[in-house]
Amino acid sequence: MFVRDLYKLPVGAPFSGYFVIEHVEIKRHRTGEPFLRLVLSDKTGTFTALWWKPPKDADLSIFRKGDVVFISGSIEYFNGQLQPKLSEIRVASPGEYNPQKFICETKFPIEEQFTVLLEIIDSVENPYLKRLLESFFYDDKFVEKFLKTPAGKTIHHACIGGLLEHTLGVVEICETVSRRYKSIDRDLLITAAILHDVGKVHEYSVGISIDRTTEGILLGHLYMSCEMVAFKIAEIPDFPKSLKTKLLHCILSHHGEYEHGSPKKPKTLEAVTLAYADALDSRVKGFEEFVERELGSGKGWTKRHFAFEVPIFFDGEIKYGEEDGKEESSNL
Amino acid sequence: MFVRDLYKLPVGAPFSGYFVIEHVEIKRHRTGEPFLRLVLSDKTGTFTALWWKPPKDADLSIFRKGDVVFISGSIEYFNGQLQPKLSEIRVASPGEYNPQKFICETKFPIEEQFTVLLEIIDSVENPYLKRLLESFFYDDKFVEKFLKTPAGKTIHHACIGGLLEHTLGVVEICETVSRRYKSIDRDLLITAAILHDVGKVHEYSVGISIDRTTEGILLGHLYMSCEMVAFKIAEIPDFPKSLKTKLLHCILSHHGEYEHGSPKKPKTLEAVTLAYADALDSRVKGFEEFVERELGSGKGWTKRHFAFEVPIFFDGEIKYGEEDGKEESSNL
Amino acid sequence: MFVRDLYKLPVGAPFSGYFVIEHVEIKRHRTGEPFLRLVLSDKTGTFTALWWKPPKDADLSIFRKGDVVFISGSIEYFNGQLQPKLSEIRVASPGEYNPQKFICETKFPIEEQFTVLLEIIDSVENPYLKRLLESFFYDDKFVEKFLKTPAGKTIHHACIGGLLEHTLGVVEICETVSRRYKSIDRDLLITAAILHDVGKVHEYSVGISIDRTTEGILLGHLYMSCEMVAFKIAEIPDFPKSLKTKLLHCILSHHGEYEHGSPKKPKTLEAVTLAYADALDSRVKGFEEFVERELGSGKGWTKRHFAFEVPIFFDGEIKYGEEDGKEESSNL
Amino acid sequence: MFVRDLYKLPVGAPFSGYFVIEHVEIKRHRTGEPFLRLVLSDKTGTFTALWWKPPKDADLSIFRKGDVVFISGSIEYFNGQLQPKLSEIRVASPGEYNPQKFICETKFPIEEQFTVLLEIIDSVENPYLKRLLESFFYDDKFVEKFLKTPAGKTIHHACIGGLLEHTLGVVEICETVSRRYKSIDRDLLITAAILHDVGKVHEYSVGISIDRTTEGILLGHLYMSCEMVAFKIAEIPDFPKSLKTKLLHCILSHHGEYEHGSPKKPKTLEAVTLAYADALDSRVKGFEEFVERELGSGKGWTKRHFAFEVPIFFDGEIKYGEEDGKEESSNL
Amino acid sequence: MFVRDLYKLPVGAPFSGYFVIEHVEIKRHRTGEPFLRLVLSDKTGTFTALWWKPPKDADLSIFRKGDVVFISGSIEYFNGQLQPKLSEIRVASPGEYNPQKFICETKFPIEEQFTVLLEIIDSVENPYLKRLLESFFYDDKFVEKFLKTPAGKTIHHACIGGLLEHTLGVVEICETVSRRYKSIDRDLLITAAILHDVGKVHEYSVGISIDRTTEGILLGHLYMSCEMVAFKIAEIPDFPKSLKTKLLHCILSHHGEYEHGSPKKPKTLEAVTLAYADALDSRVKGFEEFVERELGSGKGWTKRHFAFEVPIFFDGEIKYGEEDGKEESSNL
Amino acid sequence: MFVRDLYKLPVGAPFSGYFVIEHVEIKRHRTGEPFLRLVLSDKTGTFTALWWKPPKDADLSIFRKGDVVFISGSIEYFNGQLQPKLSEIRVASPGEYNPQKFICETKFPIEEQFTVLLEIIDSVENPYLKRLLESFFYDDKFVEKFLKTPAGKTIHHACIGGLLEHTLGVVEICETVSRRYKSIDRDLLITAAILHDVGKVHEYSVGISIDRTTEGILLGHLYMSCEMVAFKIAEIPDFPKSLKTKLLHCILSHHGEYEHGSPKKPKTLEAVTLAYADALDSRVKGFEEFVERELGSGKGWTKRHFAFEVPIFFDGEIKYGEEDGKEESSNL
């Protein structure tokens, strides 16, 4: 049962389900008896619940932020907010629940999209770049992480598979531009586009929610992507030094401006193309995600976006093409 | 004879040709006799020439900045700079010379590209938008101006046909993005992409060189494009007011940021897509043009670009695809 | 009865009056019975009220944000906040209440001020500019809207008649400056000053509160003022093109800087004068309004102003000259 | 004879006059003989002159930047630039020439304007502020300096009397605003307006040209004005401390923004009014001066202004009202 | 008893102690009876308390923000927050409580540190600068204030003695730099370092909490420090004017950038050294204080710092060297 | 013979010496005969020379930018500039001249300073950090490069040994700060200080002049330092991952702000200390170098510094302590 479905139940109705603990506090009745106040969530929303009368001998300290718990209880409201009283709560075992209940996943089919990516890699003719790409994408361990990584925590592509989806979005734009501008080194551009965000596999940790790692906050994916690429290149014999420099420059400068965290501004045709293609794909997706979250299926104005610094107007319909039909597993 | 070819002639060699006056001064010999000092150019370069001994009764004041003149003389150098002495100079009649000698032209074939544009217009399904587009592009007088207009004076697409070329570049990227993001109103986006710079037909005057008009400097093409579109819409019965608002918003916000001269930041999916697509196409082209101008067929670093604020590194080859073969008329 | 007067009543006292609904929620008692929680306001303040025991068959969904309601009940406090319990609530009919109870009005007498404006228009000697001004200010429909429009939603002149008041404030400063600087085209400057914000009649919707329209947020009054002027000019035979350009430039650039939403910076004597006069009048008024709202009749520091980014210090007295005596209608 | 008149003489014509040395270099003929190359100017322009054949025993080192010299010679041109050859040059004695030939003077009559200022001081009712103003403007030594000081070196009011002229311009605007906004403490505002730039008497040194002093560059007139006012206040018994604080705040914040060199942003009604009035008067005057210098009596576009960062368009006529008739002394 | 210790008591336990009133409200029971809601604090934290049943004849209006009160009552919680009910409350007399309970004090021993400062003053060889320093630091009244003043309200050294501690921190860095860079005028630099923040004795008022004065907010310590130094210099015969200018420049420019409130950027070796030394010492201390406040003895990430605009990572241990052992008085 | 000494010779005097070619052009006499125009320099200045009459069969194309040439000729001036005519010119062999003639060298004795650095490394107690430092500074090849590398091309420490000098300057400040702030991890800070700029060994190429490499411009020393450190760490068994992250963060963030090219802002005590210490040392040195270059042994104002955006005032004496006595080799 999703959070958004709880709201549809009448007051007093019984319910049960799996939720993740966002916040937990042991509080006390006036009598001094302890009780539990929890903020619980899944990917569809958040609510507060009270475990009003735990058994006398219950150890309330075992519940920690981030745990998935199974609860049952009945629907109540306090001050207009859903605030059920629980009759039961226990920490769930990993196998019991579907992790997809807690973190959203790209609307695009991951396997198909990965196949598309491998075909693009196959189209790269420069043997050093192709070998470099293969050293990443034929490494099962890396691929497993890559396919699960989001492209962001809140701003854009903030879901499992988001990095893959965003990578392909950027590659598509780069292909379009390189068809028109023949002076561009297409293989270099496409390689840079595919690798530009690989550091995000270490920048984000994806469990029941998306978090930025300490390493991610202190170093950032621009640097981490470059370091990963530099170590891979070190294993490829005779990889041309100037090719390495140009490729790392594309990655290092792909945020385009100093104030967006690029230590270098783009200074080559390929770097400038990548930087704008990245900005375009992430901004459009960021707009779309924000509209969907804020307006649902409604129309009109969202509130002001915290990063884009504008409210967004939308009077159309959120659509995902043929992939739209993909269903969420119903037995969560 | 192009300026760049004059440099290949030996000192003392005779030459003749058509050039435009960039600067003219009547100066005096120590004897008090007047002579003429001219800065002349065509699209391949600039040089200084002296008309050292004009006939006694010559009216030197008839030569004005912007005139095309026919000159003959012989090659001389002063202080390492080409500085021929002229034996003859006269103002040329319009029919005598090929205007293309003075202002560069898009490398893409204008007619073919215009056909592509008409096909895109034909693909627009929204009847109001299609009619709006037709009111521009089936108006011969507008089209004649549009096809001649550059997209800029110095930064990008600064040549005859540049506006058409840039418009198609932006449309291509928008098509790519709208195929991926189905929530975008594709007809609105494509219409905005086609019309976003139409005000440039009044912002630039294209004669023998490209200049910005007083109107262009005081009002800018963002406003002028919107005014043009607003007047055309006023003639289309029942054009929906909200559609007009959304379309004008795309045009008005397409520079993306206040500091780039947009009075509004993009606040719709279509506006944000257009703004980034415009930035991407003009920046890549601007890089390419600068590399070509600064490095010719060489490799390495350009000087710092005055607007992009970086030097550009290029070690590839400037290429224009199949259209590359298009020849400059040889009988200039 | 104004909100600020409710606070003066003792707990338990009965009261009644007209208020506008800022927020409304249907909530439920623990028993499942619905009740109504409302946030109500007039121009003097805001409070929460509960309709604790509506009749069984009452349709609670008829109350909507923006409705004016008549309520009666008795004064109660919850957690130190006024929170009366209502015994009656019904939607009021338009004729029942005085709309001025809900939105503040300029302290200056509107009719007198409008007469001053007409006299200034009469003093314009340039026939094209005079005719242009008359086409706006002898159009009853436009004038009716103009006189009701505020100059802002929160920052300055945020009240009925605020646009007129601000327009005259700017005109006064422009007159002072044009008397000293004879090189200024006084007629052009005064015309621009009068028309610079006319687009605000479409940017703001004034009902029971001031709101920005979708058109206003997407296009802004700079553009909308220009478009309105351009259409009016199109109807005046032989209006000089360069005069139109200079006038539109003044309007388009009157926010002075790109980051304040002007697509062009002022480039003429008249434009630069208008931009600074506009900034001066709106900033002073903004300071005064903020001081009045924050300090009432007190002295000392306001909190930090959200837009000016400073707190304001005031140890004087808010005064409005002779117009100060103007009374609020007492039969609200 | 003014520099601008030299240009009207025929080649070879004799001339003589007083000019100031902007730059001087002792150079050598190929024979090793020394000669003098000078850049000379008065307030109407600049030219280069050669003292080609000084007497054998001449001490060329006595000529220094800033000296006024008397020269005679004949008109010659080199490379289109005026470059007369001198037959005589000697350092002029102070009494010989009219200093007004070298530095421009306000077009407004200084004595009349000063009388206006004294009348305004007389209208101040607050006894402490009046006494403070009198301590400055009834001090003959200060007044003598004040009347000679410019308001700037290059940007606005860069002429003798410019500080007086600018001060009155700012006062006029402040009077206009304080008539409308009665909450303003008019006496405080007018006092601040009169004193806001007094530190400029130490920031600029006015001799034959305007220079910024070392003290001026290291401390600036904002600080120096405040220090001067603070020392004067220290001599007035019982001057209220809070009045001092509010007055100094107006002066210290009158550049409005940190990036314009104000250590504090305006935080009172009077301070914000002064800051915008100062900006308005100096910007309009700066535009006018630039137009006059760049276009003379012509029309059209100036080059880009180095500080305002725009070119300026002007198609009117530079005028100074009745004072316009004031003549420059013809026997310079 | 400190606030942080109250949390360790069981529900229902009695307690008593001295606390400062941060906020006070007279509220009413449903019956109309008044009661008192207080927010109380000391330097270790904040809590809410209710005086639920004051005596009938109690004058509740005598309790004001800023008063220190003695309270007794018993521990209760409301909604998880400490909210004791009081049985007694009275305003405390100044002698009753230790003021150090309410405002933190530098961890360094003030007297020892002041001795160090006097030794540094003694090491200054320039007689004018030495005399200037002595005019401040041998003035008992000034010294008493100086030793109590914090260097900031929230960002760095926000405690009694903080100004002394910060001054020495800056002096130490300046000494290190002046040993390496011999071109620096060491006496000037050290004098400027010692005096750079003296205006803070008027910018902050230190009672039971630290507040900025109206004078401090309107003028700032940069200006106030300069004015204080200027008046002291005026009393020293023959103090060289250029030395005064250079010293005031160091003080006036020590925030380094316009946007940090310096009206001048550093333009001498001494000024630039001081500005960076000040930035270094205050930033490091600001980081340390924030880490200590946010993490206590924990490790990991703080929340985002409101001024530095980053979260801070710390996995070490907060230490204060030998001075670390200094105990807080236990009989508070 | 240094360039600055050429100016002391009389016109016509013969001279000879070694200089580096900054610019070379083959030009032609009116007769068509080629001649050579060269811009030559050493570390004391720049001048233009003409090889007016090369032998008929001379191959002028062998002279290239960057070559050191031996020339002889006689002193001439043209237009006030030194412009000798050459009688002889030939490319010099590497052994012939002292390279120190062309690029300045730190005033501090390199060997002594390097010994100091090794002692500091020895004082590091953390075994991983010590081993890391040793892996750099006990690698002879690296050390050789390191000791020759400047810390900049123009802004600060732009001389051989400048990197060593700057590194020690930063370390000294960090030691001072870490003695006061015990919470700082001193070993981490000192290690970061020593390694923060090691990437400059690849960013600058030092031959006869200092140049930035293509790799340096495209990637920058922040990234390159990190990559170098990351590869060295990879060879140290069990180097703690969190220590690596914190160290790389210090290096990556040491420019302090995005706009100075740091992809991350400092987020730890050590990183923030390093960033400010680096800024302090480089700014002071940059001021000193600029004063010395612009004023020589004079006093007063320099011109505006292109990067610091201020002119600098200096009325003291440039001094280098005991090391000052170090002589430039006299047999250059």
UniProtKB/TrEMBL annotation, chains A, B, C, D, E, F:
Keyword DNA repair: no
Residue intervals of the HD domain: 163-283
PROSITE patterns: HD
One Pfam family linked to the record: HD
One BP annotation, GO: rRNA 3'-end processing
Record GO terms (molecular function): hydrolase activity; nucleic acid binding
Keyword Hydrolase: yes
Keywords: Hydrolase
Protein name per Swiss-Prot or TrEMBL: 3'-5' exoribonuclease
Taxonomic source organism: Balnearium lithotrophicum
